[in-house]
Amino acid sequence: MSNENTKFINSLFLKNLIEQHYGQKEVKIKTYSVEPPSEYGSALTRASINRVFVKYSAQNVKEDVITFVTKVKPTKGELSEEFRVSGDFAKEIQIYQTVLPEFNKALKKIGEKIDFTPNIVSIFSSPTDGIIFEEVTNRGYHIQFDKTGLNYEQSVLSLQKLACFHASSAVLMEKGSDDLEMFAKGTFHNDFKNKMEYFNEAYRMVVDNANGLGIDGAIQQKLREFSFKVVPKVIDDYTSAIKGFRVLNHGDFYTRNIFFKYKGNELMDVLFVDFQNAVIGTPLIDLFYFLQTSVATNVLASSRDELIYFYHDALSTMLQSLGYKGQFPSLNELQVEMLKRSTMEFYFSLTLAPYLRIPQPRVITAVQPSLYKEEYLQQLKNHGKTVLSMSKDFIQGQLKRFDALGTLDYTGDESRIRGIKNRFAAARI
């Protein structure tokens, strides 16, 4: 059934599409339907995503059926205007139309072919901006809706392909490409400081419900003290680089944006979708986001260092293969940077992970501040306490880890660190 955003999908539109992009002639549309997607997208998407079934005949085809998925920028209402102002949908168009083809060119030169996303059938701009994808489930790709999170094998392969994506972007940036200019700002940026209501409330909700969540009293006190400085620190972490090394991050890299393909019991491949929050910055953005929101907690506890090793190994191998000439972090430097920037991961663990880990989303997380709406904050206020209680064990475990790392002592250590720096500076005079 068509809706306000898909009224343009009619027999004429489908006839032209099949003739232009499926190589058929004299197409006649017999029947078609527009339905919610089988797996593409989720309750968290801001764009209109639909699955289209078409039965048709053609010059050399008596009858055939095709299915594809459309992702369309809303045509009316408040969200339509927000997309127009923010340019977030344009980011996704740019990824598929320009960035990925550049990646493919570079990979082809070294004899590699890596599919990062489902195949694109068409990109159009009238009557609204939209993308038509293959129905990737027809090729055996599926989202893993396991409530426990991704297993070790799924996590490793996801991070290895992410590393190849990051490496390809670093090579493109080294060439000085203009194709990446629109990806300069992501979730946490000084320009979005006045749109942090969701994150402020999500953090406050943890503090206010700390007793019910079984959070240690000493940690509770640190959380309260940290609340006054945590957002500026997260912005600093998010906009940083590792010794100048930056990549194009997916920006919303978690379970529901990753498709997995199995052959029997063997995991063969993964594909990524939804690049509306793509951003240039430290690779820790995607690493922290994925580790906190997607990896099964038992895997995270037992194999975190191994996962980081596999990511770094794939990153360094691909950078070298692509002829990257710049500096990139060693495994040790990456690990040190993860400690240094652990406030960002800590913040993800409290304000995003509980809401993205549950099987049935109840709260739309404001990972795109440019599309922030008051109703999302109200959802958080209505359902946040329930979701946090469902994630009680995860929150406790992560807070203990961050406390042991010293992440929660940032505010208390600031003056001490500043004093040490001043002493060193004085010694040089």
Automatic annotation (TrEMBL):
Report the source organism.
Chironomus riparius
The CHK kinase-like domain, residue ranges: 131-321
Q: Which InterPro entries match?
A: CHK_kinase-like, EcKL, Kinase-like_dom_sf
Transmembrane parts of this sequence: none
Name of the protein in its database record: CHK kinase-like domain-containing protein
Upper classification of the source organism reads: Eukaryota, Metazoa, Ecdysozoa, Arthropoda, Hexapoda
